Amino acid sequence: MKNTIRALFVLVSTFAFTSNSQAMDLSIGLSGNLGFMAATGTETNTTQVTKEYGGMETSHGAIFAELGINDAVSVGLEFVPTDIDSPDKVSIYEDQPHGSGTSVSSTNTAKVTFQNWYTLYAIAKLPAPGILDGTYLKLGYTEADVKTKENLGTGGSYNDTDINGIVAGLGYARTNDDGIFFRVELLGTDMDDVTAKNTTDTTKKVVISDIIGASASIKIGKKF
Description:
single chain
């Protein structure tokens, strides 16, 4: 993930310094976010497959910085400085080892923690009249590290991985004469599938697919 973020920084910097020669505005701020993510989880334990659809609420703070390319377009980077934990998922497996006829129960408990969550984005102000002046579109690329935390009665553990996708939505901003601004945003998220394999047995894996989300945020910041 670090290579991806480094490449994104280079891309933004190159674009910013070559787009035009005029001075650009720098903005920094804080964001409070409330959202919901849903996905389909498929766990394969050798030949036994368990599939379940579920979701999780997310609430977290973030910090962000932006460069104003012109009066209508800005590019920015938002970072979540805290971990985001999923709920625990418990699975119970019944097995009859070596055809003994005796059933043995194994319990798997797993959760994931999202860390180093970044979103690189662009916002474009819409030519809206009157009270709607300040409405903007937002489009971005988002990525996070996924740390697996599990206690597997069936043995082994799952590898850490990462997750990425796109975000898009609408926002509304008001700025006073001192450059202090207030925003509200509504965003949708579409993430790529994630696969975590058992580190000691390749016949065991978890696939998280059809990951979508929605979030609302309140932001406050200052333009310099």
